[in-house]
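Sorry to interrupt, but I need a hand with the structure work. Leave the record below and I will have a look:
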Amino acid sequence: MVDWYDGDVLWAEYMRRHPRSDQEQREFVADVEHVLCTELQVQPDHLHVRRRERQRGTAQYSRLGSARRERIIAEGGHRFLVNLSDYLDTGLFLDHRDTRALVGRMAAGRRVLNLFGYTGSFTVYAARGGAVASVTVDLSRTYLAWAATNLALNGVDRHQHRLVRADALRYLEENANLPSRFRPQFDLIILDPPTFSNSKRMSGTLDVQRDHPRLLRQALRLLAPGGDLIFSSHCRTLRVRMDEVPEASWCDITEQTLPRDFHQRRTHHCFLLRHAPGATGSPRLG
């Protein structure tokens, strides 16, 4: 996979079994790097390579180095800090750029909750799209600081757009179980959990295949009448069990949120949920 970051190139080599010897593999990598630099007309120091293999837990967020090859890029009229050297992911998932744009269009005049907020890119789009307030929840101090940088880059007022360092699982459970008069309500909720996490700082493990019905039921308790819940997952083998969430009407919006240059249809899954009118009805993507 090759991603373009406004003059910088990131090549993600997915580690799979192959018949090449170690020497042949080194020659293969050198050839690919030469072709990328030549065809994309970039200098070698603007080519960044990741070796990607199956990740478990929080490994995808672990620091790989400290070179701090950072830069600010533009997307959709917004500005984001990306790190091209120190983490497996850069801080901005490019396959979600259309999902972010959707959030921006849906956010005007609304209260927004961004769960598992990572570096706050959904929050930036929501705030710039006219959200009256937002709460972004993530357990990582590093990523909340990164989110704060992204909000500042876009002139977002932090008084109205709060960053909360908390276990999103516990945040959901505790707030969903509050009496209705004390329960916070949001008009737009973004639920984008990792596929799996077993961080020691969490109240338990998270397996999105196992846990997504419970997470959706809890999130719906925080969704105001007439509100929208966007549920997204990078789990390629996700099998949704919406029959276990009878309080929701829903539709699969993956085709509308996956950019044309992402040819793998399972890069991510994305769903739009609303409170069910009785037990029937399906929302439409506006």
About this structure: The longest strand covers residues 223-233. Residues 2-53 form a domain with the Macrophage Migration Inhibitory Factor fold (CATH 3.30.429.10). Residues 104 and 125 are 5 Å apart (CA to CA).
